[in-house]
Amino acid sequence: MTKRDYSLVGESTRIAIETGLASAEWYHTDVPRKAMKELMRRSDGPAIRDTLIWIVAILASAAGIVWFWGTWWVVPFLFVYGVLYGSSSDSRWHECSHGTAFRTRWMNDVVYQIASFMLMRNPVQWRWSHARHHTDTIIVGRDAEIAVMRPPDLLKAALAFTGILDFRYSLPILVRQAFGRLSDDEKSYIPEMEQGKAVVAARWHIAIYIATIALALYTRSWLPLVLIGLPRLYGTWHMVTTGLLQHIGLADNVVDHRLNTRTVYMNPISRFIYWNMNYHVEHHMFPMVPYHALPRLHELIKHDLPQPNPSMWHAYREVWPILLRQLKYEDYYLKRELPPTARPYRGEFHKVDMSAAAE
User: Fold this and answer.
1) In a domain, 71, yes or no
2) How many other C-beta atoms can be found within 10 angstroms of the C-beta atom of residue 313?
3) What is the pLDDT of residues 229-262, one digit of tens each?
4) Is 280 helix (H, G, I), strand (E, B) or coil?
5) What CA–CA distance (Å, rounded) separates 189 from 50?
6) Which parts pass through the membrane (predicted)?
7) What is the pLDDT of residues 19-73, one digit of tens each?
8) How many domains does the chain fold into?
9) Residues near 132 by beta carbon (within 8 Å), at least 6 away in sequence
10) How many angstroms separate the first and last alpha carbons of the chain?
11) Which domain holds residue 249?
12) Residue 263: strand, helix, or coil
């Protein structure tokens, strides 16, 4: 029987609050004030450039799908469009939810709303959910965004790469919310004054999907659904490949991001799709640093962080044996080794049983 209650209103929630894990003070690497001020400087330029590239690539691949529809030539355009719609929208949603991608607020808001729709995520609900993920990262009973729970469901984790489970999970939630019903978990992190907005947002999303289905039926073609909605199913694999590595196999119920978050070096294409979120320890320590400044932040604080995984392949080879062992010993996790230049993990920062760690 599992020891962890992943609901946000159960026993683990009570324990997290009583032990001080909820909304705790987290460890931060020391960064000179002047350097941090420079890193946190916001600018419209990089995000406008990257967003224009993203939009042009989406429109070009969509045009290719329409032009070559009904032939095998459509396949490469489906591949590109799917990843841009179903995967790269996640990083745009993420950075714009923080309000750091652009300096101009309305630009963040517009991209956030578009990306939320692409991902079948209620923009009101997920803004508050992600705020909780940052204040209580991988704190069981508090964090609503724990992707792989313990003991791990390996079949569910494997199916995540297909997009089937997330699609099957996200759409019914939007339908439920559109009927005005929020779950107890959702009510635990969405302020009461925002809950009505969440219902309205869900209704707008569902209305667009209904219109898309109606157009598909009217034209007797799958094309409208292939362009709107279904990319959330067939294009999500890159988002899952990169996103699972953020925290999987590492410690839970700690307040040191070096213990529960992973940085992975990635190729330039994946970094563009992912908007530098591969520097994930750095992002969690300093979430107000824009995505385009994360490589510089990494160079500044890497002396105090575990060695990054050199590739995604290396990271998954590291994770797999941890997951297998967690099937029998759910307290088991990987304790990343710190370099000699780092400040040590300190016991007063967390309640985790260090004897269960994989050295």
Assistant:
1) yes
2) 10
3) 999 999 999 999 999 999 999 999 999 999 999 9
4) helix
5) 32
6) 51-75
7) 999 989 999 999 999 999 999 999 999 999 999 999 999 999 999 999 999 999 9
8) 1
9) 142, 143, 144, 145, 189
10) 25
11) 11-358
12) strand
